[in-house]
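<given_protein>
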Amino acid sequence: MNDKRLEHINISAFQDDLLKWYEENKRNLPWRENNDAYRVWVSEIMLQQTKVDTVIPYFNRFMEKYPTVYELAEAEQQDVLKQWEGLGYYSRARNLQTAVREVVETYDGKVPDDPKQLGSLKGIGPYTKGAILSIAYNQPIPAVDGNVMRVFSRVLHIEEDISQSSTKKLFEHYVEEMISKEDPSSFNQAIMDLGATVCTPKQPLCMFCPVMEHCQAYVEGIQERLPVKKKAKKQQKKKYIALLIQNQEGKYVIEKRPDSGLLAGLWQFPMIPADDIMKKDWQSWLKENYGLEVDIEESCTAIKHVFSHIIWNVDVRKAMTNQEAIEDNRLKLVSLEEMEQYPFPVPHQKMIPFLEEK
């Protein structure tokens, strides 16, 4: 590989400057209390597509409930999803539990320090693998995510599109060349902190950067133009009618989502696809799809929820049914108190305050 980009850099000085800054400025984060591989793993899975401040209370609660791989392996999936409720991207939680069960069954509860074994576990991609092996086991292995690509695109003036998988491999190569062999754990965490606090996406704080003098983009005054990333596809919009259906006993109808796909395994209030079903057909659609006979009232609220690839616009309405029992096995009748045991995605959590005791 052409390593001309490394010619202008004194790698040893870059490492020293970065690690000295990290020692003095590292963030006080709960998963850094020790470098236990399981704690590192849980934190890295939670941090995917989620901000640090959001993750901290979830991480603390999760570790209190599942302090080792054994508690998580033995837990009911619905309980794990309930702990994850509000973090989003719920497949992360399901994959984490599947992988942890494999660690217990195959590796006697020890998170593998072998790259091949670790990388074969469900939900562990190259970044998570690199983070665990470097932070927990001090192996000089790159952990390249968006933060890291942003830092190195500026330091090395790399203009390749970071949304391409080939570009990620390019960054992995360069991080491998530049990572500290003596302290890879601190090196990778230092780059993560640098990207989060100094080398930010907009208006990077170059004057406070410990590696400013090594940075090609700063020298050329183009740091705000990097990294290069093509625009994502426009998100698809979907309209739904969500129904808060109460029966004569004051119980509400909730529905378990399918075991695969968006929000798999979580619970919600029944939703009518409003783009496809006209208002005059709502009752017949519910009867045909769920065996429910309901009277639908006016809107009580509207909720917009943005996923990575889709936007939900949900018209929330109260409804009444005279049915005392429900035959569809996707549905349950539960009281408000019982409802607290079930994991709901964020848009449906926002509907709960509109429910009423009977």
The two ends are 70 Å apart (CA to CA). The chain has a mean pLDDT of 93.
